[in-house]
Amino acid sequence: MKSPAHRTRDIERQAGYLRPEHCAPPPPRTSSDTMWFIRDGCGIVCGVITWLLVFYAEFVVVFVMLLPAKNVAYSLFNGVLFNGLAFLALASHAKAMCTDPGAVPKGNATKEFIESLQLKPGQVVYKCPKCCSIKPDRAHHCSVCKRCIKKMDHHCPWVNNCVGENNQKYFVLFTMYIALISFHALIMVAFHFVLCFEEDWTKCSNFSPPATVILLILLCFEGLLFLIFTAVMFGTQVHSICTDETGIEQLKKEERRWAKKSKWMNMKVVFGHPFSVAWLSPFATPDHGKADVYQYIV
Q: Residue ranges of the Palmitoyltransferase DHHC domain (predicted)?
């Protein structure tokens, strides 16, 4: 005779328990659905601010510090390095923002879909009542995206998107490149102040001395703030990837029900198989290789 727990699990896995009649079939995908973009006012504003701050740093670095410099080699080297990193940072931001993070098909908790799963005795599936979808293991519902996201880490307003299974690589690259250009900008500001104190301030910039100082101080404040923020976020994300535990799972202290892999394998699951320079490119879509596909909780 089955225990009450077993009876509950059997009832839970039945199609009737999930009320599939309350779910409409998912709408067919069209060409307009290929572009993923969250229409959230706060997220859009944060995304625009991010780009404007990078452009401000570009302006100060190029027109205040590098172009007036007498050493052409110094200006050329730092200009190429800073602009290259800034381009990769913005490209990573765009990819993180416009890539589907791993959204579960909306409204797929239909009777036909549940029957197609061919559930085994004792197997349990869960339905999200908010988006009427069958939730894979480790998926969570995002109230901003209004979708269940596979392996959701968190929703980041700065990229106006969730950080999930499909775009975590781009988010990690975004934080890394922003931290690098912030550190680079701080070093150049320090050098510029030292050189200008030794020479006439009017020869250090095409702007007046007060305007130059204000622009450099603002850049220094911006660089320091974002260096700390993105460096901490980058370290948190790498730790989360290595331990194979998302931010939400850590916050909720969820019981681990998935297979444990090595730290290196977890890195390859996110950045691609095998290890290559493509790990650093926001234009290379990661090949998950032998990564486990999402299964329903058993």
A: 127-253
